[in-house]
Amino acid sequence: MPESNNSSQKEVLSEQPPSVIQVLLVDDDPFIRESLKVVLGLDTDIHITGTASNGTEALACLESGTPADVVLMDIRMPECDGVEGTLLIKTRFPDVQVLMLTTFDDDEYIIQALQNGASGYLLKNVPPARIVQGIKTVHSGDMLIHPDIARKLAGLLRTPASPPVNEPLETHGLTRMELSVAEAISEGLSNKEIAAKLFLSEGTVKNYVTEILGKLHLRDRTQIAIFILKK
After folding, report:
1. Distance CA 15, CA 166 (A)
2. Average pLDDT per 10 consecutive residues for the chain, totaling 231 residues
3. How far apart are the C-alpha atoms of 149 and 74, rounded to whole Å?
4. Nearest 5°: CA angle at 130, between 144 and 54?
5. CB of 100 within 8 A of CB of 75?
6. What is the pTM of this model?
7. Nearest-10 crossing angle of helices 202-216, 221-229
8. Distance between CA 187 and CA 91 in Å, rounded?
């Protein structure tokens, strides 16, 4: 549906073959939406399937049949921000990856978005190529959290008021190697980087991630990172 000044800012575009990463853009600024649509559309691996101006509209797009592998979403928006929008989307469409894109380096918002299932976070002032790579990273199942942000999250989650954790993670059923993989995930490493660090194949790393998710009863890599950072 084309954008109109008299109606919702939700827009649905054409579908593409499954090999192309289908992206839904969510931002309350129409200039940002159009700019991202043009810039990201230059990459042949990415197709913008629609746009929305807040989290509620993004969910409506998905529910109405707009295809999306990745939702690229601003954090601060009126009516329904990216934090709430992430929760709505991941609850209804758990297989859709959400990548936060914002001008705000806000610790609280970042933590809430990650806890709600976001797969990563980028600032809007990064080069377009970095946004493209970020979309491809989260689409592949990896997390996109800069090491500085991971350390910041760790510091915020490990508050002085938190009781000391005396029980080792192995009691949760994790083997030593699974624990090493989980810790690498919390550092924001991709499967390829984890494989190189631990001298494993990428396929073996993926198997370990599946085992970790099952043993800890978690939904995705983001929750693994948060689980580790809280310890």
Report:
1. 52
2. 50 61 95 93 94 96 96 93 94 93 78 86 87 91 72 59 47 84 85 89 89 88 80 66
3. 17
4. 70
5. yes
6. 0.71
7. 70
8. 25
